Amino acid sequence: MSAVDSARRPVLLAALLLAAAIAPAIAQEPAVVRLRDAVGDAIDRAERDSFRLFPNTAGFHDAVILALPGPEFFAEITHADGDTVRQVYYRILPGQLERIRSLVDNRDFMAAQLESDTGAERSLAAFWLAIEEHPLQTMSGEAPEVQDIARASTEVTTAGGPQLQPVTSENRCKYTLHGVTCGSAAGGFLGSQVAIEQVGYSYSGCVSTPIYAVNHPVFWTATCGLTAVGSAVGYVMGDGLDHEALPSPMSPYEDDRWRTGCAVGAAIPGLALGAGLAILAGGLHWGRADRIENDPHGLTVLPGVLTGLCVAVEIITIGYHIGRSIDRRKAKEAEAKRRALGR
């Protein structure tokens, strides 16, 4: 071996050791994620406004999406505040990144939907709130020291309007319906057992028929009171769930064929069961009586009729939700197929 080769060996060994040392660091370097060609690698202020991206970040100057090894992404946001420029980071999950890309791909569709559907506006506001309410100083997870950035990031407002909250009304409606059903059933049963009493018999030949009378104040206090309590409890429970849950965004490929068909299909058994319950529970007063002499207009059947109506609506609603889940599954399949074809 020549002297030159002997001199080169330490140099090569040092180079290999240096490459091995810096390889993990290179592997951990974040890669810029290109959203779409319409945006490019960096999102400027005009693109942010045009595609409705990061709407709650005060002093937005530009942003890039970064990918690290693992399932999460980060948005690096540059803030320009006078002469001061700083960066903060937002953690973005893969599903959130796909929706951001959907906003870019379907800008005109989103604009039309926001104009025609206030629920879509609230859904979009809640989506961005979930991302922008937790700014980070670094991608390692440190919170920013500048409190005005965090405060500005959590403000979700409409122009000239009150602050929006990430809520829907679906759970409130659903649980209020549950409360009305349970309350009317409990109130009708309790009112019938407590306030309807036998007061004598009427005779027709050898046949005697019981005569009943109702204590109206007790009956209506029990039925209306328990129905109101059930409704209030259901509303409060649903309101809490609405504030905790984020509404699912509607995909541009989602239609309403299955939800409409399943709701219509559920209407037949729902109405049949509801009508049967109204006749048995309301007409017979939960087994207490079938004829009341001081109720000439038959108003005491109303709690049972309300319970039957609520049961019918509950069954139709179940059919609607089953159909909606099918619609959403098919929309996801259509969107996945579109992405696979590169459209």
Question: Topology, pairings included?
Answer:
Layout (H helix, E strand, L loop, with lengths): L2 H25 L3 E3 L8 E3 H7 L8 E8 L5 E9 L2 E9 L1 H12 L1 H10 L1 H15 L14 H7 L16 H26 E9 L2 E8 L1 H29 L12 H27 L18 H39 L3
Antiparallel strand pairs: 1-3, 2-3, 3-4, 4-5, 6-7
Helix pairs in contact: 4-5, 7-8, 7-10, 9-10
Which spans have pLDDT < 50 for at least 5 consecutive residues?
17-27, 143-167
Strand content is 5-15%
* Proportion in helices: 55-70%
Q: Quaternary status of these chains?
A: single chain
Walk me through this protein's architecture.
- With 343 residues, the chain is of the alpha+beta class.
- The chain folds into 2 domains: 126 residues, no CATH class; 171 residues, no CATH class.
- Helices cover 57% and strands 14% of the residues.
- The chain is built from 10 helices and 7 strands.
- Strands 1, 2, 3, 4 and 5 form a 5-stranded antiparallel beta sheet that branches. A two-stranded antiparallel ribbon has the order 6-7.
- A hairpin with a 5-residue loop joins strand 3 and strand 4.
- Helix 4 crosses helix 5 and helix 9 runs antiparallel to helix 10.
- The longest helix has 39 residues.
- It is elongated.
- The two termini are 61 Å apart.
- About 10% of the residues have low confidence.
